[in-house]
Amino acid sequence: MSNPTQGHRIELVRPEQTVTVLIDGVQVAKSSRPLALFETGLPVRYYLPPEDVDLTLFQPSATHTTCPFKGEASYWSFADRADVAWYYPEPIDSVAAIAGYLCFYDTVAKVRVEGELPER
Question: How far apart are CA 98 and CA 73, in angstroms?
């Protein structure tokens, strides 16, 4: 029996980039302290510190999901848009640095990144 998690990798990088997030034309976040998360089979995801997100624009969601590689995620909603961002309050040890950081769905939010990722 094969292990579906075998060969799965996650890498966190602290890039020298600035990430700006807009939803419906409203700037909801801007950070020069993002964490870039590279995960097998997924596009790079930018996790932003909560201090760099205008949390007054969001409402906590009742949604929770579990990722075997990161832990249990909780979600934020924006206006009439449910679950536009997620975060891991207590991620697993291998990705502990993303605790509390928010990541936005690029299908809802416009995520603009300035600067280059470092060579990996």
Answer: 11
